[in-house]
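Please go through the protein record below and explain what the tokens say about the fold. Record follows.
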Amino acid sequence: MDDRPTFPLIVHDDERPVLRLALKVFRDDLGHGEQRIIALADDVTARIVDDEREPLVLDAASMKVTWSALHTLLDSSARGQGDERAHLRALLDRLPGEHDMRAIDLDTELDRRG
């Protein structure tokens, strides 16, 4: 039984496309040496549910990758992309903050996953 803590992220219907886009852009920017992170981004993308009443359950590693993907897309988006930016901010607001994310050692968390 896996007793590591998880985080339930509610993804509203209108936020689902921007979350998928953020994860795709993030994974596409990774190099060949980062296959474990690419696989993790793909795993999170595959687990995005079509029912906003069912949360996307994230462990520490998938939460950090999701947070990083959302932040990366927000930082690269233009002011004219208001709806997209609003969805990105709303998702980020429902995740723990930057201090908590930076405290997660992704390599350690990936090693724990096996």
